[in-house]
Amino acid sequence: MFRSEKIFQQDDNLYIDISIFFKSFFIFLSIYIFSILEFYSIFDLLDYNIYLTSKYFHISIFFSISYLIFSFIFRLTKKRYVIHYLSFLLNDIVPLLVTVPFTLYLLFLLKIDFNIDTNNSYLLILIIVNLFIARKILNSFYKHIMNNNNIQRNIMLVGSINSIAKILEEKKDKINIYKCCFIKDDYDHPVEEARSILKIPVFTNESEIRIILEYHELGQIWILDNEDKSLVNYFLDTVIKFSVDIIIVSLKDQGEKNIKLLSDNLINNKYSYSNYQTSRFYGLSLLYKLIFDKIFAALFLLLASPLLVLAMIFIYIEDGFPIFFSEESAGWDGRRFNVHKLRIHRKDSLNKKILANENNKKLLRTGGIVNKLRLDEIPQLYNILKGDMSIVGPRPQILKDDLNYAKVFKQFLKRNKASPGLTGWAQVSGFRGKNPSSTNMKKRMEHDLWYMDNWSIWLDVYIILKTFYIIFTKPIK
Question: pTM of the prediction?
Fold first, then answer.
């Protein structure tokens, strides 16, 4: 999956920024087309020399760039992308009205000849029409990703029954989908009564929260603060160990001014909130990471394909099919997926836990070489292309091990607040290898959590370079 819901999870700022660039390009395209059609036919649209020698060459550059700048300066839409026509007037036409005199002033300042005539009025009309078309395209695409549940937040509401009911009674907000709720069993009302009141799945302190999070594909937990601090602390203590983002929503009645200072995107700007524990992986930075992952995975898979094919042939010759095997692991937000690897053990040992080392009799002769060269990990590039994994991130654990370690280390499941990686900060820091001790696993967890708290694209690049250095200079453990 592309993780579009994570890119837009905090707000629509990225989509709004993209829309401004898109509209600026439409303006440039309008002037380009007009520069040719003014004296030539539609069949000459691909003749760039006409555009380059026309009087509209400089104005197309100044006008589109000025519109881009003023659109950002006068940007009135906040946090959420708005579709109605008033938004078109405020966010599209107002920057245009400022851009026109500013561009003329630039032409005058730079002493560039530009004669104003009747045709300029037609050009302005064409720009306005194309801006309207661009806005319609952007609106349609936003509706499409909204209707296909691509950017919605799947939310668990946590709090008292009255607090949850208050949120559910609010005007429907398409960006927020309340999948279920969690209450304290002995608080306010019996569970049966809560289910009849709230009419969404209700869970209590006796429920297995991890299964709930996975089943409902939850991305956020909202803890509703009705000023009962002991209850809020109880809920925090219950959900804090899980991988999903945690937000504390204040239900206290506040003045409109204060609310807008604290929050301008939660349930139609009505409630203030604080990001108690949220992932850094969202927005434009996450988009860069996803694009980087796809490009790197495709390129490296292409370069490694001769070695991969050769390894597959030798595995088949030595022990037949299957050549690959999969292990079920926990991914982002604890969602399950299958990690793909080359098989390096004899097929009669696939259902047993076998240590991968050269002294193991179950290890294929080919498997020992494949394991030393890390070729068995190459199929995980397919996981990256699918969107299950990333190039850099916490290494995925077998689902059973993930659950076992979570019982030992309270923060262990927080590793699942990002896509698992082909390599990671813990691995390049020396905490890698099969069958780790509890001390080693604790260090891995601490390094993974540090990476997630300090993540940047440049940190990913550093980890990738260090991974290659380790592969070619140090033996596998």
Answer: 0.77
